[in-house]
Structures are given as C-alpha cells and as structure tokens.
Design goal:
CATH topology of the largest domain: Isoleucyl-tRNA Synthetase, Domain 1
CATH class of the largest domain: Mainly Alpha
Number of helices: 16
Strand order of the largest sheet: 2-1-8-7
CATH architecture of the largest domain: Orthogonal Bundle
Oligomer: single chain
Shape: globular
Largest sheet: 4 strands, mixed
Structural class: alpha+beta
Number of domains: 4
Radius of gyration: 28 Å
C-alpha cells in the first residue's frame, strides 16, 4: 500500500509545542535522548534548507521564460545526458536509504540522507553541471531533458521532506505543481530500479574526487578555474578508478576546464631530487660534511648517480644510504593526492590559454554588473571594454563574440563611459593586475 507523505509517516504526531522544541534535533543521531536547546544546530539545518530553497528557485526563471511547466515534466520529452542519468540514479539510491531508515525509526538518518543529497549532489554538482544548458536561448532536447530531470528531482525531494518540513515543502509544491490540495495528499516516493545505475554512481564519485584534487592543485599553482589548463593527468594503480576516469574523461575535462585529460598507472615526468642524510654523510666526510650536504641538496638522481656532485672541484663518492630522493612534479605542474591516486594539473600558459582566461574574467565582471543593475536573465545589453594593456586588449578582442554571447550583448559601445550617459553602469576592475574598465547599458 502506498503511503501518504502527510498522514502515514512512521513518526507519530506530536503537539505543536513539542514539535517546535524538537525541530532542531530531527537530524541529530541521538533520537529519544533529552537534549539541551541547540540553536547552533538549528541554524546549521536552516542553512541547509536555504540551499534547498536556492536549488528550487534556480530553474524557475528559465522555465518561465521558456513556457515550461514543471508540473508536466516528462523524462521522455527531451534528451537525458550523463549527469541527468546520474542524479536520477542517486535519487533512487537516496529513496531506498530513506525508506529503510524510516522503517527502522532512524529519523536522523532519513533526514540527513535527503539533506546531504540536496546540498552535495544536487546543489554542488548537478546544478553547476546543467547551468549552461538552461542558459541557452534556443529550445533544445538537451534543455528539456535538464528541465524534466530537475523538476523530477525537486518533486520527489519535496515529498521526501514533507513529513519533517511541512510548511516549506507545501510552498514549494504549490509553486511547482499544486494539482493536489496539499503535498501531504501525495504518495511517498518509491525508488524506481529502472533509473538505478550503480556503476555510473561509482564513476561519478571518482570524478568528484578527481575534480576536488584538481581544484586543490590549481589553488596550489595560483590558477583560477575560469582559466583553462593544457592537461590534467590522473595517476592511479586502481583499475576501477582508471576505468572510471577513462569513461568520464570528457566530463572531467569540462568540470576541471582542461584541454586534455589522461590517466596512467605511473606519471613518468616526476623529477627526483636528492635529500642528503647527515647521519651518514657526517661520519664519512668529517669537516667537509657540510660542503657535501650543500652539494647534494636538490641535485637530481641522475647527477648524484652519475658522479656529477663535486666539492672543491672533486667528485664525491656517495653510498646509497647517504641520499634519499623526493619525487616532485616538473615546473608548472602541481600534484594533489586523492583516495584513488594523484591528480597532476599542468598550468603552463600559452597565448591561447591566456587569451581565453582574460576573456572569461571579463565575462564574470560583466555578469556581476548585470546583477547590480538587476537585469532579467534574457535582458539584452550593450557593452564597452577598455583595457590598460595593449596585449591583453588584443586577447579580449579575439573573444568578442564569446563575450557577447555569454553576457547577452547585442552591440559594443565605442567607449565604456558611453554607458554613463544612459541608465547604464561603468566600473573599473583589476583583472590579473591589469586595469579593465567596463560599461554596460540595457537595450531599450
């Protein structure tokens, strides 16, 4: 028998006062224990529900502009891409986990499973992956697939959370659908095995680990995600990790903004440098020990083993115990470990990469200015850009069409200051230590 989300929850109803006092502890793992009032945990849960609210609001403006009714969402009406199939599979896994938790009266596990799915899988990964598809102006099977997927996820998440967040989910339901008098009349979601793909879920888990490691490697190198990199190399001795990276290499490349993604069981470009061992060198060389230490420090393995290390012009004969080696990535390559291996990011700069990087930085600033003017998603603008560096100005000019397409610009102003003569906005930005002046104005 199907369960109503409002009347057949495994939780017994309580008085209003009791619900109000215990609400902050629903996600606490010590159910049934007396707890002191914990406003910090209440604020933490509120923050996570705010993320749910932002996910809920994200597609509405795009759907409205396209005349798409989320109440009529049909996964067959559109083209599902890999990330759509993944989030739908994760939804089925979460529903299974939640159903089992409710059956065992593990309230906190049920709540946390849904909240974790929303905050980590949907908000941090899926929404970012489909943003560009919803931004497209033209109708497409891909856009409809993204709409249907997110509408399906939201509909079922709302019903999953209805027993523990009745007012929030009611408001969301009435906005998305409202065909029933209340969300609490609806059946509780049940997992659909036809949408489950455990292998895909495992693959994307690897992808996310690789993505996080690549982001950390970029941070080490001081390279922002908006700037593309020539390549990312994943080193792993785990066959499952290797297979996952190979299957999802295109998506990984998009996520980490890399021209090329490769996987290997051994990254053979590491440079081994010497670390002298004083405990062995001291007794052997006596008064000359410090000179030997200085000569060995930082030398390559090839130099040490080839007899190229010298003191006062004389080669030094070193035993294996006197030197240890540290493997380091080559210049412009940063490496960060993850559970399945190591991710190496090549941050070498080429004119092509610099050009796109500066263009992406300009796009981001224009988008921020659109927000300052409170422009609608589809609002068209005119743009003017002046760069206090001829070389960088050339890069921006090379990507004029890309910039215009991304920011909804119909034409270029002769000077950024021209925007000040209308109801536009002119601002000066520091982009990689280069002054860039941008003016934008809405098209009437």
């Amino acid at each position: 028998m199907s369960k109503s989300v409002g009347t057949s929850s495994p939780r017994k109803r309580r008085s209003s006062a009791r619900r109000a006092r215990s609400a902050p502890t629903l996600s606490h793992d010590k159910q049934g224990a007396d707890l002191a009032s914990q406003w910090g945990r209440a604020r933490e849960l509120q923050g996570k529900l705010n993320i749910l609210w932002n996910v809920f609001r994200f597609p509405l403006e795009y759907m409205e502009l396209d005349g798409y009714d989320p109440a009529e969402a049909d996964l067959a009406d559109g083209e599902l891409e890999l990330v759509d199939e993944w989030v739908l599979s994760r939804l089925q896994s979460v529903e299974t986990e939640v159903t089992e938790a409710w059956a065992d009266y593990r309230v906190s596990d049920a709540v946390n499973a849904v909240i974790e799915f929303v905050t980590q899988d949907v908000s941090r990964f899926y929404v970012k992956a489909v943003r560009d598809r919803m931004w497209e102006e033209a109708d497409s099977a891909s856009k409809r697939g993204a709409y249907a997927t997110l509408a399906t996820v939201l509909d079922e998440v709302i019903r999953l959370l209805a027993p523990i967040a009745p007012y929030l989910t009611e408001r969301m339901y009435q906005t998305l659908d409202g065909s029933a008098t209340t969300v609490h009349q609806l059946d509780y979601p049940e997992p659909d095995d036809g949408l489950r793909d455990p292998e895909l879920e495992r693959d994307v888990a690897v992808l996310r680990d690789v993505e996080e490691a690549a982001a950390n490697a970029r941070q080490q190198a001081g390279r922002k995600l908006r700037w593309p990199v020539p390549r990312v190399v994943v080193e792993s001795g785990d066959d499952e990790v290797t297979a996952a990276v190979e299957r999802l290499s295109d998506l990984i490349g998009e996520r980490v903004n890399a021209r090329e993604v490769t996987v290997t069981d051994a990254f053979d470009e590491l440079v081994e440098t010497a670390e002298p061992q004083m405990a062995e060198i001291g007794p052997a060389f006596g008064a000359d020990a410090q000179k030997v230490m200085d000569a060995v420090q930082g030398a390559t393995r090839a130099a040490v083993e080839g007899g190229a290390v010298a003191v006062d012009g004389e080669p030094v004969d070193l035993d294996d115990a006197m030197v240890e080696y540290v493997a380091e990535p080559p210049e412009n390559v940063s490496g960060v470990d993850f559970d399945g291996g190591t991710v190496y990011v090549d941050t070498s700069l080429t004119p092509e990469i610099e050009s796109e990087g500066y263009a992406r930085d300009v796009i981001r600033r224009i988008q921020e200015m659109r927000k300052e003017l409170d422009l609608d998603v589809e609002a068209r603008i005119r743009v003017g850009v002046a760069v206090d560096d001829d070389r960088i100005a050339g890069f921006v000019d090379e990507h004029a069409d890309l910039i215009a397409g991304e920011v909804r610009a119909d034409e270029w102003l002769d000077e950024p200051s021209d925007a000040a003569e209308t109801d536009g906005l002119v601002e000066e930005w520091d982009v990689e230590d280069v002054v860039v002046t941008i003016g934008i104005e809405p098209v009437a």
